[in-house]
Amino acid sequence: MTKTYAHWIGGSWRAPGNGHYPVINPATEDTVGHAPEADQADVDAAVRAARAAYDGWSRTAPRERAAVLDRAADLLAEHAPDLVPLVQAETGATLRVTSSLQVPPAIDRFRRYARGALEPDTVPLAPLPVAATPLAPGGLIGAAAVRRPMGVVCCITSYNFPLTNLAGKVAPALAMGNTVVAKPAPQDPLCCLELGPLLKEAGLPDGAFNVVTGSRAAVGEALVAHPGVDMVSFTGSTAVGKKIAESAGRSMKRTLMELGGKGAAIVLGDADERVIASAVGAVGSTFSFHSGQICTAPTRVLVHRSLYEKVIAALTHYAESLKIGDPVDNSTVVGPLISAAQRDRVEAYVSGAREQGARIVVGGERPAHKPGFYVAPTLIADADPAMTVAREELFGPVVVALPFDDEDEAVRIADATPYGLYDYVFGADAGRAWTLAARLRSGNVGINTAQRHPETPFGGFKESGVGRDGGSFGLHAYSELQSLVWVA
């Protein structure tokens, strides 16, 4: 039997004001469970609970906050055998992705910010002699900059990594002394609701963490507009991010937004066999890793013309070797997309590219696998940089290949989209790649690798977002600087 959930508000379950809606398994099209549908009263209750808990939690000693977050990591690890199948069923991610990159990173993030709660929050500034003014007498003036919590933080998360993404927001927010109201993506909120009782068991005060869900945009809109919310942390599409920025700006709420991406992997002409293999593996991850539902994916591969057909052939072989099927099967590499609507959207982009004259090298047809919302790994070659498929984020297992003749052209093509989240440079000369990275309008650049470093500041240029999180930068993102000045 499927489970029917309530909202998690004020440290207990609260029946929703608008009933429930089904959460669908993208691989089987069966119902995983029923999520609560919030109304305005539910949203208001969650914000009020967070506001009531703020004074006590923000004044809790950092060591006590650290202990709660550490205990939360322990409990997540203990409950991983139950959470992994739930996350897998909600997201449609393969078992390999779920067991390694859905639940374990959430544990790691709580552990990381347990340490983060103990990081120094004060930057001492050297005393300075200041002359007398009509405002005040002169003297030796001391000062310090101190990080203070924002207040009530609204965390709105994406559907691709629901638990990991939420942990990446909640853990640093709580470490800094904020309280939280979370609103998970409507497609897979159940695992996020399960976090509520675990945090309570870990010792988090009632109201410091709350979760409301809903299938309609009105729930998130009500949270963002609520006068009791001080900050909005959002991961999702650029279109929704712009609406959040407009609403939050009316009351000058702080925002942290990680938005869309259209990553370019530039393969330079000096790339040798080893570097080409690395580039193909990185770009191929768009096909093989969570069906391309990754904002950092290198969905465009820009290849020096001398290597273009060689890279096309290697990517074709890569895509054709991947098994599409049931994500619970350990041999499956490509699972479904999150919903029928997302599958249809990706298919429409591919059809549009074909109509505009691009070459569909592999894929482009719906797999025979049924039920489920599957899209075959698709490689599109000979696209013009101005084509829609080369400019807009698809969020599916689709790669667009474009040739270039020199570095200036490569930079122009890479920077020709509104996005600037994550780009990549592959070349035999790492110093040359480093220099080229400086010309890319991108918040992150991988050189000869798609691997991430967990302590780097993560965020985007242009329409890919506002602000940075990750490592200690995540603590900075969920705090305000207060300057203290005194006579030394």
UniProtKB/TrEMBL annotation:
<keyword id="KW-0560">Oxidoreductase</keyword>
<dbReference type="InterPro" id="IPR016162">
    <property type="entry name" value="Ald_DH_N"/>
</dbReference>
<dbReference type="InterPro" id="IPR015590">
    <property type="entry name" value="Aldehyde_DH_dom"/>
</dbReference>
<protein>
    <recommendedName>
        <fullName>Aldehyde dehydrogenase domain-containing protein</fullName>
    </recommendedName>
</protein>
<dbReference type="GO" id="GO:0016620">
    <property type="term" value="F:oxidoreductase activity, acting on the aldehyde or oxo group of donors, NAD or NADP as acceptor"/>
</dbReference>
<dbReference type="InterPro" id="IPR016163">
    <property type="entry name" value="Ald_DH_C"/>
</dbReference>
<dbReference type="InterPro" id="IPR016161">
    <property type="entry name" value="Ald_DH/histidinol_DH"/>
</dbReference>
<comment type="similarity">
    <text>Belongs to the aldehyde dehydrogenase family.</text>
</comment>
<dbReference type="Pfam" id="PF00171">
    <property type="entry name" value="Aldedh"/>
</dbReference>
<feature type="domain" description="Aldehyde dehydrogenase">
    <location>
        <begin position="13"/>
        <end position="483"/>
    </location>
</feature>
